[in-house]
């Protein structure tokens, strides 16, 4: 699975997603892109999933019309320690993810 980490997601999270092709927005040169342009660029580059902590993304963007899945981690701080307890839930969802949907993991 091709996964893009939004710039609000810490890059060290990649080590816990080793079974997937994972890039950060920064690695792609997309640090300055706002959500709409970031989603467009990620779809064009073939990403399947965008991981973010931006809880407003589904209010700001029409995700239903896009060929990507957005996963929002509902965490208090963007530190790897806050993501780690939610990763098993994320991994259990992988086979059922649908493009054009937003999933919130708490």
| Strand residue percentage | 15-25%
- Tell me the Rg in angstroms: 12 Å
- Overall geometry comes to globular
The number of strands is 5
Give the uncertain stretches in residue-range form: none
The CA-CA distance between the termini, in Å, is 22 Å
Mean pLDDT, all residues = 96
Secondary structure category: alpha/beta
Strand order of the largest sheet: 2-1-3-4-5
DSSP helix count?
Answer: 4
Secondary-structure element sequence? EEHEHEHHE
| Main β-sheet description | 5 strands, parallel
Fraction of residues in H or I helices:
10-25%
Structure description:
With 106 residues, the chain is of the alpha/beta class. It contains four helices and five strands. The chain has a five-stranded parallel beta sheet, with no helix packed on it. β3 (49-52), α2 and β4 form a beta-alpha-beta unit. The two termini are 22 Å apart.
Can you describe this structure in just a few lines?
With 106 residues, the chain is α/β, with parallel strands linked by helices. It is built from four helices and five strands. The model has no long low-confidence stretch (mean pLDDT 96).
Summary keywords:
106 residues; alpha/beta; 5 strands; 24% helix; 20% strand; globular
Secondary structure blueprint with pairings:
Layout: E1 2-5, E2 21-24, H1 35-44, E3 49-52, H2 57-60, E4 69-73, H3 80-83, H4 87-93, E5 102-105
Parallel strand pairs: 1-2, 1-3, 3-4, 4-5
């Amino acid at each position: 699975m091709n996964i893009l980490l939004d710039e609000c997601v810490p890059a060290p999270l990649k080590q816990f997603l080793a079974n997937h092709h994972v890039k950060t927005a920064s690695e792609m040169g997309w640090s300055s892109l706002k959500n709409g342009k970031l989603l467009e660029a990620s779809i064009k580059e073939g990403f399947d999933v965008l991981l973010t902590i931006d809880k407003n993304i589904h209010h700001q963007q029409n995700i239903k019309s896009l060929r990507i899945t957005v996963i929002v981690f509902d965490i208090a701080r963007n530190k790897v320690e806050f993501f780690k307890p939610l990763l098993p839930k994320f991994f259990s969802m992988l086979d059922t993810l649908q493009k054009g949907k937003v999933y919130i993991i708490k």
